[in-house]
Amino acid sequence: MRRRPRVYFSFRSPYSWIAIDQLERRFPRAGEYLDYCPYWEPEGGILQDIRAQDAEVLYTPMSKAKHLYLLADIKRTAARFGSPLVWPIDTDQAWELPHLAWLKARRQGQERVLYRALVEARWHRGEPICDPSVLARAADEAGLDGADLVAAEHDPLIRAEAVEVMVAAYYDDIFGIPYFRIGRERLWGLDRLDEFVAALEAAHPDREGAPAPQPQPQPQPRPESRLIPVPPADAAEHIGLYDRDTAGGCG
């Protein structure tokens, strides 16, 4: 069975936050046409259960130099997209908590509400959403049951679902965030968002609010006078300007 388009996101990644924000601005009904899949760095029992299914977590921690670069780059990126940013200070990066809470909210049909609440808390107020009290407060303020969502971290059913999600990510070859899948296409990173949106629009041209398709101009044959003539063989031997490499080759 053909799977729906999907986007892998992480509450940890600022690029994930900006990518989904831009995706939903440009394709407002994205939630109806694609699946959102959480991705994080599991620990303890969940990681053991993933490996017991012959799967692995393909993400590898970045170097300090790359991390420092990204801190500066995300400020430029957020400013370019007009997204207000307050950089959070993470003291206890237990990323299972917000992602398992999101899985619990999805069972209640409230995952979009919790997602927006946690994004607002983390990237607009700089709050450490891995802190149970911070997560519970953000959820409560959004009209959800914060204590119930915090407890999802210890819910056996949610933990089993978390293993399924991460095993599926392994077989989807997910190694970084954000990551988009549509058909056989794999698109990694914020700079591939344009291609993903274009693929979604092509797959759903009849969606409500879609712009009417515009007629595409037909290519016109070039005038004969503009074609580059082929020089005589004896002249070509002396000119030496022709590229004899394979088409599209580099090096």
Can you describe what's shown?
The structure is a single chain. The chain is an alpha+beta fold and 251 residues long. It has one domain (6-203): Glutaredoxin. The chain has helices at residues 14-26, 30-33, 44-52, 64-81, 96-107, 111-124, 132-141, 146-150, 156-171, 193-203, 233-239; strands spanning 6-9, 35-38, 179-182, 185-188. It has a four-stranded mixed β-sheet with strand order 2-1-3-4, with helices on both faces. A hairpin with a 2-residue loop joins strand 3 (179-182) and strand 4. It starts with 5 loop residues before the first strand and ends in a 12-residue tail after the last helix. The model is unreliable at 212-251 (pLDDT under 50).
Quick summary:
By secondary structure, this protein is of the alpha+beta class. 47% of the residues lie in helices and 6% in strands. The longest helix is centred in the N-terminal third of the chain and has 18 residues, at 64-81.
**What level of helicity do the residues show?**
40-55%
CATH H-level superfamily: Glutaredoxin
Total domains, how many?
Answer: 1
Classified by CATH, the class is Alpha Beta
Unreliable stretches (pLDDT < 50, length at least 5) are: 212-251
Beta-strand portion reads 5-15%
Widest sheet: strand order? 2-1-3-4
Structural class assignment = alpha+beta
Q: What is the CATH topology descriptor?
A: Glutaredoxin
What is the overall shape?
A: globular
Q: Give the C-alpha Rg.
A: 24 Å
Largest sheet: 4 strands, mixed
Number of strands: 4
